[in-house]
Amino acid sequence: MTKSKKPPKQSASSPSVPKIIEIDEGVFGPRLMERGEIPINPQRILDLVKRISQIDQVLLNDEDEDEDDDLFLKDILDEDEFELELQEILGSHNLEVNEKNLNRYLQFLKARIKPTYKLTGNGEFDWEEEYVSGGKSKKEYEKLKKQQPSYTDTFSLVQFCDVGTEGIMVKVERTSDRRQFILPLIDLDVTQEDPEHFELIDNYLLWFFSY
Domain of life of the organism in this record (predicted)? Predict the structure, then answer.
C-alpha cells in the first residue's frame, strides 16, 4: 500500500503543526519531489561559501581601515608637534637644512649635551662598508680599525665643532685607546648605557634627513 504523502489532519488536541512550504516541482523535478529527495548543488554551496568569505573580508577591511585612519591621524599630529619643536629650536618657520639653521641647531645641542656624553656608530662608517658587507679581508679590517674609527667603538664626546656638508661635526675620543676623531653627528647615536639624551640626537637626525 502506498503511504499518503499528505500530512495528517490536525485534531483539536494535536499540537500546532507548522505550515509546510510547497516547493515547485519544476525546480527539482516531480520524481525527486515524489521521493522526498532534494539534490545538493556543489557549485551553489561553493558560491555561498565564497560570498560569506567576501562579506567577512569586507568587515575585516573596514576594521583595518579604522585602525589605519587612527594611525594616520596620530602621524599627522606627531609631525605637527615635531615641526613646532623645530620652529622653536631654529627660531624660524623655515625648517630647511642649511648652514644658518645648522648653526642654530648646533647652539641648541651644545646647551643641552655636555662632554663625556657616550656615543657609538649608528651604522658602518664609509671606510669600513667594503669590509663589513663587501667581503674584503677581515684581517686587514681588524688592522685598520686600530687607526680608524669603527661603528662598533664606543666614544666619549669631547666637544662640538663646526658645521659642514655632513651637518654638525663633533670631536670624540674612543674609550678603548683614547684616540680622537672628528666625525659627523649623523653617523653617531647614543649608547645603551646613556639613553637620557637619545631623543635630542634622534630628532636632529630626523630633521637633517627629512628637511
Answer: Bacteria
Enumerate the domain spans of the chain: 23-95, 97-210
Strands of the sheet containing 167-174, edge to edge, are 180-184, 167-174, 154-164, 118-121, 188-190
In order along its 211 residues, the chain shows pLDDT tens digits of 443 444 444 444 444 444 444 444 444 444 444 444 444 455 555 655 555 565 556 555 555 555 554 544 445 547 888 899 999 999 999 999 999 999 999 999 999 887 778 899 988 899 998 888 877 888 899 999 999 999 999 999 999 999 988 999 999 999 999 999 999 999 998 876 666 678 888 899 999 998 9
Neighbours of 120 (CB within 10 A): 20
- Pair 177, 116: CB distance under 8 Å: no
- Partnered with residue 170 across adjacent β-strands are 160, 183
Residue 117's φ and ψ, nearest 5 degrees, are -60, 130
* Alpha-carbon span 33 to 24, nearest angstrom: 9
